[in-house]
Design goal:
The chain has about 375 residues and is an alpha/beta fold. It folds into 2 domains: about 220 residues, 3-Layer(aba) Sandwich (Aspartate Aminotransferase, domain 2); about 120 residues, Aspartate Aminotransferase, domain 1 (Alpha-Beta Complex), CATH 3.90.1150.10. Helix content is about 35%, strand content about 15%. The protein contains 13 helices and 15 strands. The strands form 4 sheets. It has a 7-stranded mixed sheet, with helices on both faces. Helix 4 crosses helix 5 and helix 11 crosses helix 13. The chain is globular, with a radius of gyration of 21 Å. Bound molecules: pyridoxal-5'-phosphate (PLP). Pyridoxal-5'-phosphate binds next to helix 5.
Length: about 375
């Protein structure tokens, strides 16, 4: 049985926005079609796992459920080592603390705000490099142009699960001796050139927020393929502990709880089926969308994708706003992922990012989740094409 929570789609929704009268209600009414729905496992299966935590009396501090989840994730995501964490932002902060060390971080302006905010939060300086218009990931040529003696790191996002040009980025990074962090919040299960996408770069970070395809309520993970980095990330996510009475260095609390891990373990067996269902609806979008209205985003060749989102590009912002209006009349709630372009954040010095600026004004994510049905789909198509 598949059920749905009342989990609001909160990404990018500020308090100011939430109280603004003209914005769609983030808590979908009955009959509305939200951009995503949280998959919940059969409650008995979750309870059986929670029962284990009750029996052991251990709710946190890297109990057996967290360790079991890490093993299963490493296997599923094709990586050698993974640390389950409390969300997808803390691993970004830890990775930046380890690899950026207060310097300039070359990053994408087209991502969720957490990517840029983590850089600023860690007292580093974001330096934006514009994106590739075709795949919407950071443009390697733009990265190279932005490298200075102050650059300490590259932080790129596999936006919508679409892989960055990891091969060219690796080549540039190694030529300039720079570490690479990938924000892989959207990239659960993606393969690129036959390899798990998380196995590229020095560190990758994941989000298991309730709106992501694999979710633990709140949750995330850090992946690194170099043992010395793994050791450091491990102590940093647990207050710096190296055993009960010894400390390696500065750390914070990034641990995942047993209750969150239980959710992940209960959902894991359903992941292939969930991704298959999303793929089915995505293929229908590709087939039935009128290209004179909007176009799909290209997925990089060589990718085994996870259908994390259904982004489409309108020919102008005006047409996007019109389509959103029509959809909201039909209680369809797409989202403007990602708007505004991050170089427009109020705490950033605004510089020119023409591609990201243009894309962020014209892009819309259409509803995509396991509970869509033919009726919903034709409602979406009618509203989308009624311009
Ligand atoms: C690209 C990206 N990075 C980071 C995050 C932060 O993850 P979390 O909400 O789990 O902290 C998110 C999502 O929320 C995201 O979309």
């Amino acid at each position: 049985m598949m059920t749905m929570t009342k989990e609001p789609e909160t990404m990018g929704l500020s308090t100011v926005e939430a109280s603004a009268p003209r914005l769609p209600n983030p808590f979908p009414d009955a009959g509305s079609i939200p951009v995503t729905r949280t998959f919940l496992p059969p409650i008995g299966e979750y309870e059986a796992l929670v029962q284990k935590a009750f029996a052991s009396g251990q709710l946190t501090n890297r109990g057996p459920l967290v360790r079991e989840l890490e093993e299963k994730l490493a296997d599923k995501l094709d990586v050698s080592a993974i640390i389950a964490m409390c969300n997808g932002t803390v691993p970004l902060q830890i990775a930046l603390r380890m690899l950026a060390r207060g310097g300039e971080v070359i990053t994408t302006p087209f991502s969720y705000v957490a990517t840029t905010a983590s850089i600023v939060w860690e007292h580093c300086t974001p330096v934006f490099a514009d994106i590739e218009p075709e795949f919407l990931t950071i443009d390697p040529e733009e990265i190279e142009k932005k490298i200075t003696p102050k650059t300490t790191c590259i932080l790129a996002t596999h936006v919508f699960g679409n892989p960055c040009d990891v091969i060219r980025i690796e080549e540039i990074a190694s030529r300039h001796n720079l570490p690479v962090i990938y924000d892989a919040a959207h990239a659960f299960g993606v393969k690129y050139q036959g390899k798990g996408l998380l196995s590229y770069g020095d560190i990758s970070t994941c989000s298991f927020h309730a709106t992501k395809i694999f979710q633990t309520g709140e949750g995330g993970a850090l992946v690194c393929n170099r043992p010395e980095l793994f050791k450091e990330a491990f102590y940093r996510h647990n207050f710096g502990h190296d055993g009960p009475l010894a400390f390696q260095g500065l750390g914070i609390n990034g641990k995942m709880s047993e209750l969150n891990a239980a959710m992940g373990l209960a959902i894991m067996p359903y992941m292939d089926e969930l991704i298959r269902k999303r793929g089915h609806w995505y293929a229908k979008y590709l087939k039935e969308t009128d290209l004179s209205v909007c176009e799909p985003v290209s997925i990089r060749p060589g990718t085994e994708w996870n259908y994390a989102y259904a982004p489409v590009l309108f020919h102008s912002e005006e047409r996007l706003l019109k389509a959103m209006h029509n959809m909201s009349e039909s209680k369809i709630l797409p989202r403007r992922y990602f708007y505004p372009s991050l170089h427009r954040l109020p705490y950033m010095v605004c510089n020119n990012m023409p591609v990201s600026e243009d894309i962020s004004r014209r892009i819309l994510c259409l509803p995509l989740h396991h509970e869509l049905n033919d009726l919903d789909f034709s409602r979406i198509m009618d509203a989308l094409h009624h311009l």
